[in-house]
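Notebook, bench 3.
Goal today: get a predicted structure for ATPase from Chitinophaga alhagiae so we can plan the truncation constructs. The sequence was checked against the plasmid map this morning, with no discrepancies at the termini. Length recorded as 333 residues. Pasting the sequence as submitted so the record is complete.
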Amino acid sequence: MENTSYDIRQLNERIHQASAFVDLLNMEINKVIVGQKYMVERLMIGLLAQGHVLLEGVPGLAKTLSIKSLASAINARFSRIQFTPDLLPADVVGTMIYNQQRNEFVVRRGPIFANFILADEINRAPAKVQSALLEAMQERQITIGDSTFKLEEPFLVLATQNPIEQEGTYTLPEAQVDRFMLKVVIGYPTKDEERHIIRQNLQPEGQTKINPVVNPSEILEARKLVREVYMDEKIEQYIIDVVFATRNPEEYKLAKLKPLIAYGGSPRASINLALASKAYAFMKRRGYVIPEDVRSVCFDVMRHRVGLTYEAEAENVTSENILSEILNAVEVP
């Protein structure tokens, strides 16, 4: 037992030193982004836990600016793809084009070949394009013609969707939404933040410049450390209980939720909840996971993995309401 506590203490010290760059990144991004601390934190969790992020919010909430700033601060390649109904898979991944001088077909790489991809308004493009992007997210490789290309790490997809307009949109199927580690819903800034935003945007251009403070190789090292963060068996059991409560609520004295849930979280929910909790602990410069870490990331990991029945929608019950009930009912270790 003593040996284990010594190991955890050592790990804690290593992680405390290795996670110092998180503060540097935050300082750089805060030069440009006002408020939206929650969104930036979730982007970092996605980055450290090797998971992609789906952002939902009305236009103008600095979604594009946040990921662009993060890419600049990490000295990584950024690519933005504006999804439209006439987009083709080749516009995203690339295609074979005929080179007349060489008398052969050559591969022309698409914008997906970058470290940070902003898939703007992903629900505007047809299913074919969505699945081309999702294949790249899952496999981290692209096939063009008969050649397969590995995507450069770190590779993070941030997809945005606008919850207001439904005309001319193609809803992401549940199985595809499940590939996103986090679904983050962002709201408006406060009055003070908005005042700050106005002032910042009226300053002379080019005054706030983001400097690269971290290398992509440091991020890859940090990812390895995130997986080493200690997770006690009790915390693992807590994660399993939270996920199982979405599948069989009656086992957790939540029988009233049964008619509201169409389907619960998949095993991917448990994996991502564990990984995101470890990344959150790492960002808090800790070498071990506490129940509060799990609760902090639970909504973002689970909200798109709990299916609602028509009855729930008729009663205006959201997946957040269901998750709140579950977190209140499941015993915290």
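The chain has 14 helices and eleven strands. The longest helix spans residues 2-18.
Flagging this for group meeting.
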